[in-house]
Each structure stands twice: as structure tokens, then as C-alpha cells.
Design a protein that fits this description.
Chain A is of the alpha+beta class. Chain A is built from six helices and two strands. Chain A has a two-stranded antiparallel ribbon.
């Protein structure tokens, strides 16, 4: 293998999935479509609001999730997967299968 | 670790892959078979010995990797995937594909 490790595809993917809660946030969006902040709070038992906010921002910066304002008075936002994010379904599915059998 | 055991299969898998370097360590073992500590040090550019030691211990405790003594004078150990660990190839492959395309 000639590629330098920090640039290897697995490292790049691991950098996104390698933070606690990110895989579960993506799973929520894959299973249920666009979600509001409160939906994640309700579904991901034990996640603190500051942690959730931090993770959503990180996923936005990685181009996996996008934030959309769907109402302006009062302003309401929802989060959805980008095309790049939807393409993570194979990884999340493989994680789910492995975890169900061996985790 | 006093953290509550996450109950969903994706969380359990993410706890293993969700630490920096673990996915790359598993990839090394999938690609090359049993490896010695030094082999990982050489292949994973930038990993500190204490970090590598910590990650290998974590993967052993998770039942993904096992340590085997293959020579007693002087003692030499190598690390190999358990059956449970080999079954992670689907996840690692999906991570590699996604990272190559979108990462």
C-alpha cells in the first residue's frame, strides 16, 4: 500500500463515524427522514443538548447532513442527509448486522 | 469504564470502531493476517506506542482481536482476528468504499 495513512479512505470514514453518537444520528435520519433537534433528543436517550449540537455541526461540516429552515415565523430548522450522507447506509447497515450478531 | 452499555446494535459497533485507529488496526489484520506490535507501528504512520498498546488491549477486551505467544525464548507475541473480528470485514469494506468515493 503506497498511500499515506492519514489520507486512506478508511481513516477518512472513521474520522466521521469515530465520534460517539454520529452513527446513531445518521441511523435516525436513514430510518425516519428529516428530523428536528428535538426529535434527536427524544430518540437518542442520554445525549446532552450541547453534545447533540456539536455532533450535528460536525456532520454538517463533513457534508453528511444539511440543516434546512422550513418555517421562518418562528424560525424552525430540520436536519436531513445529503446525497453523500445517504450513501452511508451500507456502512450503517453492516454495523447494525454485526452488532446484532456479535456486539 | 462505568459508561452504561448501549443497547442498540449500531451503538455497540460504534463503540468499537468509534475510537481513532481501531478501524485501521482491523484493516491491517484483514489485509495481512497475524501481525506483531512492530508491524502495526510501521504500518500505521503516526501512532504512538502507548496509543497502539491501548487500542490493541481494547480490541482484545471486545473479543475482536486475540494475542498469541508464538515463541517463548525470547517471548514473542502476535495479534490476530477472532472469528468475531473477521466478520467485521463487511463494515470495513463499506467504510473503504464510501471513503474512497466521498470521504
Amino acid at each position: 500500500m503506497t498511500e499515506r495513512l492519514p489520507l486512506c479512505p478508511i481513516s477518512r470514514t472513521a474520522m466521521i463515524l469515530g465520534s460517539r453518537w454520529t452513527a446513531q444520528i445518521i441511523r435516525e435520519l436513514l430510518d425516519h427522514g428529516p428530523r428536528r433537534f428535538q426529535d434527536f433528543s427524544d430518540a437518542l436517550e442520554g445525549i446532552a443538548p450541547t453534545m447533540l449540537s456539536n455532533r450535528l455541526k460536525m456532520l454538517e461540516e463533513s457534508g453528511v447532513v444539511e440543516r434546512q429552515i422550513y418555517e421562518t415565523h418562528p424560525p424552525r430548522a430540520e436536519y436531513k442527509l445529503t446525497d453523500k450522507g445517504r450513501k452511508m447506509s451500507g456502512i450503517i447497515g453492516a454495523m447494525r448486522d454485526w452488532g446484532a450478531k456479535y456486539g
